[in-house]
Amino acid sequence: MIAAASSKMQTVKEAALRFALAPASARPLAALRIGLAGVLLVQALAVAASVLDLFGPRGIVQWPLADTMVVPGVPRMGWLTAALVPLGLSEAFVVRGVFVLYVAGLSMLLFGWRSRLAAVLAWFTHLILFMGVRTSLYGVDDFAHIALFYCMFFPVGNAWSLDVASGRASAAPSWEARLGLRVLQIHLCIVYLSSGLEKALTPPYMWLDGEVIWKTAMLPEFRQFDMEWLAHWPMLAKLAAWGSLGIELGYAFLVWPKATRRLMAISTLGLHLGIAVFLGLVSFGAIMMVLTAAAWLVPADPESHHRDTESTEKSHC
Amino acid sequence: MTRKQKLFLCLAAGQLLLVGYHVLGLPLPGVGNPAGDTARWYSSISGAHNRYGFFKSVGTGCRVTFHMNDTAGRVWTDTLDKSGNHEAEMRYNGSLYMIITYGDYLAAHWAATMFGRHPEAHQVTVQFEQYEPGSMEEFRAGVRPEWKTTYTKAFLRKDAFGF
After folding, report:
1. Do B83 and A237 touch (CB under 8 A)?
2. Do B94 and B136 fall into the same domain?
């Protein structure tokens, strides 16, 4: 009996190790890298003219107040300016310089050129620009920051990159790619499940009667279309709310089985597309779509990697 | 399993456990406790500190308007957002809700921005308004949402006093 239990434990351990470490293609992580950098570059373009207003020392919220919202010890812009202003650089120059470095890091990441260095540069500059001035951020920045943090450790440059093209990185399936993909997948499941539970269980339970859809559509900052007609169709608001809740609560359970994975992932993309169109949260919707598409819709199994590699080689011949 | 695999597996598990810990809203050791401070610092730089409760409920909309006047009696207005695109506008408006927490301190920051933009202004009055959308039932009954001023504060330029 002890031997049987031990054998079962061994089987479970092997299955767990296969789940976490079986070699996988880095293509899903490359999709994450490209999608993330692409969205953040467009976002950077949108805020480029407002850099000093949003992140500068005398912006709409000045640093002494912004600093009180940052965890002690976390790097911030004030540290850089304290080090560089005595060298003759102005604070505004330093802020603009960090923003340029941020764009440079994202551009390198997009093309997969020195991907690890690019990820470190993009993450660090994002940390001190966006996360260091919390009065100028919203939900998208939290997810961008998480994804950039992961890009520093995951082999995101091991597919579809200049690093592979130049021979600096191998495109061969690896356990690092599998582990990175699993971390991303599990983190996303935690995100959606907790988001769904918070929505369903937080008083006054606006998600259960559909009022949240109505109120959000009516708020001037999110209003993209005239939605006043929705007041006469409360069942439609309720259906939209319940549909969103269903996707968020079901994500962690239905995205793992092969039979429901594609449907679940595509439904989630639809949810975020809806948020982007109806609430105008375009970069938030785009980042969330990138995360789910990379995690679940880009094949990671080595067989598909080999098939694609062989067909590419044949077509080149 | 190699030593490197074991190390990375432990790091990955630790990261996900921390994410789960924050999601559950469990407390970290207090400020000043080395374990708590380290966990807060790491959570902040890695983004593991979130609870992801976006839009769990929707409150009021808000906006802030600045009314300037100069010594010649001219009066004009401005808003924080000068970007002209929704992405930047979201960020300009990111601080608006914080007036509830920071009150006059935050309003003074905004006013300073306005004095910087409008050097000729002698006084800046911050007007904060809120917009309660109401329920669908109220809307059907004919109630229409409107902006209500919930905070005003006037700031005078220091040199206006001639000190």
Report:
1. no
2. yes
Closest-CA distance of chain A to residue B123, Å? 17
Total count of domains within chain B: 2
State how far residue B150 is from chain A, nearest Cα, in angstroms: 17
Chain A hits for B142, CB-CB cut-off 8 Å, are none
- Here the ipTM equals 0.90
pTM, to two decimals: 0.92
Do both B72 and B129 map to the same domain? yes
Flag whether B134 is in a domain.
yes
Task: Give the rounded percent of residues in chain A with a pLDDT score beyond 90.
Answer: 80
* Most confident segment among A55-59, A69-73, B38-42: B38-42
pLDDT digits (tens, 9 = 90+) for A249-304: 999 999 999 999 999 999 999 999 999 999 999 999 999 999 999 999 999 988 76
Residue of A nearest to B20 (CA): A190
Stronger pLDDT, A290 or A202, i.e. the higher one:
A290
For residue B136, give how far its alpha carbon lies from the nearest alpha carbon of chain A (Å): 5
Phi and psi at A16, nearest 5°, equal: -65, -40
Edge-to-edge strand order for the sheet containing B147-156? B75-78, B61-69, B123-131, B147-156
Q: Which residue is associated with the tokens 């909309």?
A: B61
Question: Measured between CB atoms, which of B16, B23, B112 is closest to A183?
Answer: B16
Nearest residue to A290 (alpha-carbon basis) of A104, A19, A42, A102: A42
Q: Does B54 map to a domain?
A: no
Tell me, what's the pLDDT at B162?
A: 54
Nearest CB among B54, B109, B145 relative to A62 is that of B109
Does a structural domain hold residue B108?
A: yes
Q: Does the pLDDT at position B59 exceed 90?
A: no
Contact: B136, A49; criterion CB under 8 Å: no
Element (H, E) at B156: strand B147-156
Please state which of the ranges A32-41, A291-300, B94-103 shows the lowest mean pLDDT: B94-103
Same domain? B147 vs B72: yes
Is B68 found in the same domain as B30? Answer: no
Positive or negative, the CA dihedral A232, A237, A239, A240 is positive
Based on the domain organization, do B71 and B119 belong to the same domain? yes
Q: What is the DSSP letter of B28?
A: P
Q: Where are the domains of chain A?
A: 24-172, 183-309
Q: What residue of A is the nearest CA neighbor of B55?
A: A199
| A163, amino acid identity | D
Range of the domain at B79: 61-161
